[in-house]
Every structure is written in structure tokens, then in C-alpha cells.
Design brief:
Layout lengths: L3 E2 L18 H5 L22 E2 L5 E2 L1 E5 L27 H12 L5 E5 L9 H9 L6 E6 L4 H11 L3 E5 L5 H8 L4 H13 L6 E6 L7 H12 L3 E6 L7 H6 L4 H12 L3 E2 L9 E4 L6 E5 L12 E4 L4 E3 L7 E3 L1 H5 L4 H13 L18 H4 L2
Parallel strand pairs: 4-5, 4-13, 5-6, 6-7, 7-8, 8-9, 9-12
Antiparallel strand pairs: 1-15, 2-3, 10-11, 11-12, 13-14, 14-15
Helix pairs in contact: 2-11, 3-4, 4-6
This protein binds S-adenosylmethionine and iron/sulfur cluster.
């Protein structure tokens, strides 16, 4: 059985990324520098089985954090001064592809690339191409702040990316700058347009709702976008993590409140078709082209249909977003574990996926902030 670590050491030993390196455009032209290590070769073809957790949930969806670094500093995600991990501690492209193959051999079909900001990872297009070529992988999506999409959307789509979720918490340019600390909303609009032009559809917009910040008119304005656009605007309850839990706990706005704000403006929402797997429950403003989604992870969790596990950028299999339980996959991989041994490690770890979070009992996951897990 793999070691499932309940608590990691505090994240204070990584290299500090100086603020003046923050524009990701600079980073992309550099050599990758991710760990160059010899790992056991993965077979080109492998039998595909299915993995389940101890509650019988099939694990078929892997979210991968490509980096913990980001070109923004959203207030609910991370502090402005962040220590990021040095690159050699992060999974290399080869290691990611290997672990995706391991997952695919166990029935993983869906991949979501996230971060930090996945688009700032050097070589991300080739990585997408490599993942898309893995037998069994049917769907690759990305969650992004969209700042670089105007340059990357077409190449990513050509490489095999199918869809993007784009984070935008308000349509107000000043507020957007405040909540992201460094962002400019026009870059997001440019990214959305590029995603649509590249066929990365349907575009989904993610908005984390923060009390006394964007819980009123901003929610209404975001919802209004769906009247004429075939977008899904998803409102996310703010979740407590890592170093910003106090802020997150005192400013959380419940799904019921967000929905009431939307309904006060547009009338009762209609339920849209739901697969009971997606964490976002879909609704529609009557007559609207697009849909609204509510992600109520805090107040009304949706653990029953959860088939997700996550790979942190440093190669830990995180079994539940809001629990600290993780299994280290990168260390055994670097120590020469064979493909079959990695398969057993992943299968065993996934079996121990907890049922759900313990927020109601005051059980918070402090070991990582959101940018290290990826959402
Ligand atoms: N940088 C990318 C982005 O922002 O889309 C991907 C990584 S980000 C961690 C993934 C998603 O998590 C984003 O939609 C972001 O808004 C959301 N998020 C970040 N911190 C959160 C928190 N404390 N509670 C709920 N959602 C959060
Ligand atoms: Fe960066 Fe995304 Fe976190 Fe904002 S939510 S700081 S864009 S990782």
C-alpha cells in the first residue's frame, strides 16, 4: 500500500520567484529546466482496466497541476508574496506523460490541466499533444486565467485540447484588478475570443464569489452574459485552503445566496440537464442561450458522483480537493519503479480516496494553497 501522507511540511523551502519575473511571456522562451531524470520506460500499449475507490466510485478523471506558479495573485487563492517550488521538484514532461499513461491504464479518460497557471509552463502545447496521443484519453481540458490564450489557443486546440474554463470573477475592470492583484480584464476578453475562434467550446467561465466584493451586481452581470452567449457561467463557493483560510471562511457566499441574487434579477431559474458527475449544477435563465452553474463544494458538496483525483505539480496524488490525504507518486517514479509498480501504487491510493470533506467539523486542508492543487 502506498504511503498516504496526511500532512506535508510547510511550504517554506521553495525558491522565491522574484516579482520581476512574473510576466509569463518571459518564461516561455526559456529552456524548461524541469527535472531531467531517468524513469522506467512506459509501454506504448497497455491493457486498460478500471479503478474504483472503497465506496465504489469509479476514478476516471485526473486533474494535473502543471505548475504552482502563476502570473496573477488572486486574493482567495494565494498571498502576494509566494514561495514557489524549484523546477526540479516539479514533474517533468516525461514524468507527467508517464503518470497519465499509468492513469489511462486504470481507466482515466478525462484530463484537466490546471495550476497555478498552466499556460505559463514552457512546452505546454507539446505536453498537450503528448497527452492527447495516449490511448484511452478522450478529453483534455484546461482551467486558465486566459491571459496568454490569445497567443496559445489555436496551437493548444491543434495539439488536442478540447475545452477551456476561464476564470473571471467580475466584469468590472477595477475590481478585476483588485481581486487578481495584477490582472487586466481586457486580456481575459482577448483570451476568451481566442478560445472561441480556436473552437475550444463550449467556453465555461468560472467566478469565485467573495462576500462584499462581487456577491451583488457582479453576479448579476456575469449571469446576464448567458442571455446571448452559449457560455456556461459557473459560480463557485470560495473554499478554505492553505495560508488564506481566515479570509476564505469569513467571506464565503453560499450557493443558495448566489442563486437568490440571480433569481431576484431574472426570476426563477430552470434546471438544465445534469449528469450528476460534473460538480457544477446547471440552470438556465428562461430563454437564455447559455447556462449557469453553481459549484457548492462548501455548503452542499457533491461527493457521490466524484470520480476525480488530482496530481499536484510536485507529483502527489491528491485524493480529495479539500482533504490533506496524498500519495507520493513522483518519488517512486524517480527511484525507478516500473510501470506496473506505478500502476499498483496509483490503484491502491485511489482506493483510499476519502468520501468527502470535513469542513462542517472544522477539518480544513492546510497543507497546500489552491494554486498547488489546481482546483
Ligand atoms: N490559474 C488558473 C485559473 O485561475 O483558472 C487555474 C488554477 S485556479 C487554482 C483553478 C480555479 O480555482 C479557478 O477557477 C479559481 O478561481 C479557483 N479558485 C482558486 N482559489 C479558490 C478558492 N479558495 N475557492 C474556490 N475556488 C478557488
Ligand atoms: Fe493564479 Fe488561478 Fe490562483 Fe488566480 S486562481 S492566483 S489565476 S492560480
Amino acid at each position: 500500500m502506498p504511503t498516504i501522507v496526511r500532512r506535508l511540511e510547510p511550504e517554506n523551502n521553495g525558491a522565491v520567484i522574484p516579482l520581476d519575473t512574473r510576466p509569463a511571456v518571459k518564461q516561455r522562451s526559456q529552456r524548461t529546466g524541469y527535472g531531467q531524470v531517468n524513469i522506467s520506460p512506459a509501454p506504448a500499449h497497455f491493457p486498460i482496466e478500471q479503478m474504483h475507490d472503497s465506496y465504489g466510485r469509479r476514478i476516471h478523471y485526473l486533474r494535473i497541476s502543471l505548475t504552482d506558479a502563476c502570473n496573477l495573485r488572486c486574493v482567495y487563492c494565494m498571498p502576494e508574496q509566494m514561495n514557489f517550488r524549484p523546477r526540479h521538484e516539479l514533474m517533468s514532461d516525461e514524468e507527467i506523460l508517464h503518470l497519465v499513461k499509468v492513469g489511462a491504464s486504470l481507466g482515466v479518460e478525462k484530463i484537466r490541466l490546471t495550476g497555478g497557471e498552466p499556460s505559463i509552463r514552457p512546452g505546454v502545447v507539446e505536453l498537450v499533444r503528448g497527452i492527447a496521443a495516449i490511448p484511452g484519453i478522450r478529453d483534455i481540458a484546461m482551467t486558465t486565467n486566459a491571459l496568454l490564450l490569445h497567443e496559445q489557443a489555436q496551437a493548444l486546440a491543434d495539439a488536442g485540447l478540447r475545452r477551456v474554463n476561464i476564470s473571471i470573477d467580475t466584469l468590472d475592470a477595477d475590481k478585476f484588478h483588485k481581486i487578481t492583484r495584477w490582472g487586466h480584464i481586457e486580456d481575459v476578453w482577448r483570451g476568451i475570443a481566442a478560445a472561441e475562434a480556436a473552437g475550444l467550446r463550449p467556453v465555461k467561465l468560472n467566478a469565485v464569489v467573495v462576500r462584499n466584493f462581487n456577491d451583488g451586481q457582479d453576479v448579476v452581470d456575469l449571469a446576464r452574459l448567458t442571455l446571448e452567449r452559449d457560455w456556461e457561467v459557473r459560480f463557485i463557493e470560495m473554499m478554505p485552503f492553505g495560508e488564506v483560510t481566515d479570509f476564505q471562511q469569513t467571506n464565503v457566499v453560499s450557493y443558495q445566496e448566489i442563486r437568490a441574487t440571480v433569481e431576484a434579477e431574472f426570476g426563477p431559474l430552470q434546471e438544465a440537464s445534469y449528469d450528476f458527475v460534473d460538480p457544477s449544477r446547471p440552470f438556465r435563465i428562461p430563454g437564455a442561450t447559455g447556462t449557469l452553474g453553481f459549484i457548492s463544494s462548501v455548503t452542499e458538496p457533491f461527493c457521490q458522483g466524484c470520480g476525480r483525483v488530482r496530481l499536484t505539480a510536485d507529483g502527489k496524488l491528491r485524493l480529495c480537493l479539500l482533504r490533506e490525504d496524498e500519495a507520493d507518486l513522483l518519488t517512486p517514479l524517480r527511484q525507478g519503479a516500473t510501470f506496473d509498480e506505478m500502476r499498483e501504487l496509483m490503484r491502491e491510493a485511489a482506493f483510499h480516496k476519502p468520501w468527502g470533506h470535513g469542513l462542517a467539523d472544522g477539518d480544513f486542508a492546510h497543507n497546500r494553497s489552491m494554486n498547488q492543487i489546481g482546483g
